[in-house]
Fold this sequence. Notes:
Elements: H1 3-19, E1 23-24, E2 28-31, E3 40-41, E4 50-59, E5 62-69, E6 74-79, E7 88-90, H2 100-113
Antiparallel strand pairs: 1-4, 2-3, 2-4, 4-5, 5-6, 6-7
Helix pairs in contact: 1-2
Amino acid sequence: MDLDAAVGQVVDRIPMWASAGITVRPVTWRDQGGGWPPPFKTDRSEVIDADSIGVFLEKGQQEGEVVLFKGGWCDYVYWTGETDDDPVQDAPGYPDTMTVEGFGAVLDRLTAEFH
């Protein structure tokens, strides 16, 4: 999976998220070349060996996160923020791998969770 290309899917959605009142934190990169445990960085130029990217969204109490691994699957979590609600968790792309466009579809799925 081309993580640099996948970040473009995030960047393309930032204006839509902002207009929907969704805040997006900076994309994080997990650096396998940065020792153990692998550090998370927000500056791509500082990453030696990118293993994954993560994007975290929030709106009011609602929170969602997608982590895309270079192997082509994601960890997906959405939570309403209500104490009596369980988070929605999934692993899109596992065991099959996804494309960069498929990652965009996962981001759109997460966006649709927010109300």
